[in-house]
Amino acid sequence: MAQAPLIALAAGGTGGHLFPAEALSHALRERGARVVLITDERAVEYAGDFPAEAVHAVPAATPSGRSPIRMAAAAIVLAKGVFAARRVLKQVKPAIVVGFGGYPTVPPVLAASLLGIRTMVHEQNAVIGRANRFLAGRVDVIATGFSEVGGLSETAQAKCRQVGNPVRPAVVAAVSPYPEPGTGVVELLVFGGSQGARVMAETVPPAVKLMSREEIARLHIVQQARTEDEERVRGIYAGLGLRAEIAPFFKDLPTRMARAHLVVARSGASTVAELTVIGRPSILVPLPGSLDQDQAANAAVLEKAGGTVRILQPDFTPRRLATELSDLLAAPSRLTTMAANAKSAGIPDAADRLARLVIETAGL
């Protein structure tokens, strides 16, 4: 009996890359394919529950900063990663290698290209990341989350196929009708990931303090806060007599998103995808400082669709946020419209679309 085809996924670094890879793995395994994950040593500890028959770690590094010494050191690590990935690929013999961006993707995809194995990358953001841009000329297909992706050459654009951003099964399971707030309690969900929770802790509680007593009485807040900010945030809300749940991490974030009337968050590709699949209005604050400004581009797409209020971080002050929150509480029909607009921008079957494209590109 012939063995089922094997597909290698290359992802690591952050949940933003691992989550869509996890969703694709579920979709591929449902189709009878076997899956292995190739990641970097840092991500191995986070990949323990990844739906794959094996997880292989190879060296990877990010060439960042302007120091020639650090750039050279990263290049050496990446070269070691390519040789290590070649050994893994010769051992497992995949039909295709699919990368999800970030520098942990580079060694496996580059090694596959050198070995003549079919390759694909998935770009989650509205602007292509540096690792995927580096690989764009070598891969057979570029799958995209958004209909338009900035930063690509004409040659690379010709390889693009939009499939959307795959979301985890837990997100699809959480999909439910928008709970229209009317003039009642408004569930406000605030989170920002490891790089975004600090600005939320510094801005959201002072913004709420600026609101009227009547407005505060309508709020129920669920907020992610770093351990060092947790007690301070909890104390501010308690002093306002406000019902709030504060924690450094929520395992059931998709369920909480579905319960929310409004979400305040960063605009990573996974967050934007989950907001559109579940269909919830948001205030998005793009992470500043990235070379590609990918989060600003992601939020701009949802803003254009009418599903979010985009506030760049320099403008994300307590006064500005308090004004936005007050305006939305006063116009619940606007929240309902934003929810519908967000939902209209979603691609809930993105994992299935990507799985079909992977199988087609692999010639299976």
Task: Quickly describe the structure.
This protein has 364 residues and is α/β, with parallel strands linked by helices.
Structure description:
- It is a single chain.
- With 364 residues, the protein is α/β, with parallel strands linked by helices.
- The protein folds into two domains: 6-167 and 348-362, Glycogen Phosphorylase B (Rossmann fold, 3-Layer(aba) Sandwich); 172-344, Rossmann fold (3-Layer(aba) Sandwich), CATH 3.40.50.2000.
- The protein has helices at residues 15-30, 68-92, 106-115, 130-135, 154-157, 169-174, 193-209, 213-218, 227-239, 253-259, 269-278, 294-304, 318-330, 332-344, 350-362; strands spanning 6-10, 34-39, 54-57, 96-99, 118-123, 141-144, 160-162, 186-190, 219-224, 243-247, 262-265, 282-284, 308-310.
- A seven-stranded parallel beta sheet has the order 3-2-1-4-5-6-7, with helices on both faces. A six-stranded parallel beta sheet has the order 10-9-8-11-12-13, with helices on both faces.
- Helix 12 links the parallel strand 12 (282-284) and strand 13 (308-310).
- The protein starts with 5 loop residues before the first strand and ends with a helix.
- The model has no long low-confidence stretch (mean pLDDT 91).
